[in-house]
Amino acid sequence: MRFGLFGTGPWAHQAHAPALAAHADVEFVGVWGRDPKKAAALAEEHGVQPYAEVDALLADVDAIAVALPPDVQADIALRAAQAGKHLLLDKPVAFSAELAEEIVAAAEAQSVAGVVFFTRRFMPQIQKFVAQAQEAGGWLEARIDHLGSIFQPGNPFGESAWRKESGGLWDVGPHAVALVLPVLGAVTEVTAMSGTRDMTHVLLRHAEGAISTLTLSVDAPAKLEREDAALYGESGVAVVPPVPWQPVEAFGRAVDALLGAADGGEASPLDLRFGADVVRILAAAAESIKTGRAVELG
Length: 298
Fold this sequence. Notes:
Distance between the termini: 38 Å
Strand content: 15-25%
Radius of gyration: 19 Å
Shape: globular
CATH class of the largest domain: Alpha Beta
Largest sheet: 7 strands, mixed
Structural class: alpha/beta
CATH architecture of the largest domain: 3-Layer(aba) Sandwich
CATH topology of the largest domain: Rossmann fold
């Protein structure tokens, strides 16, 4: 499948570009970026063509991979879906539930396959954990702490304008929601608040009565940094296992999922519909932070 990459930032360098270049079933065609010089440099690194125009790259490929801020990604993803191109999007799909739904509708109208790259959900250890947790059932709560800082020296994401503005809710929040949603089920109510140093707390009520507690930050003091996640219920406690940080391998698995779905296989559990559901929950949390009220989801 011919792929075009949209985006030239750290994530494109760390995951998307090397994974596309290494995948046996991918023809990596070219790169578009908002900075033509960066697009040319990344394209040269992988022996592909830099593109100056979005539509020109869309015309030359079967599928797109996107490593751009959510608002920029959403516009390109919608144009690509309408043009019949398969979509491998980053999380979150968009900043608004309405725009995420537009992308889903366009993809369905054009019979386009889609996958959203929730990084660790593509690692075998997490896939096994989720499957076992779904089979066990009886969970009453989930607690996820994802606290770190993108502002430490050497962190390439510290200059990301959208992360600075939107914080942990939209950066690491998608990973947390993507972990609890397939196990505890649909979310019916969201309550959230945010404090100093981006300390964001989210409560999710699930349709069958379970509650998820999410603590998120991308500006946490060094002594508070942690990544802990566990489920609690009738079966006891299930701690989410640690996994090695292998973004290229994870992205390669996401490509596999997209290729399979595009070839008539089953849709990925992390498809565009799932990605839109995650956006709807995060948007409700943002509304709750702004209004000070719980937000009910139909």
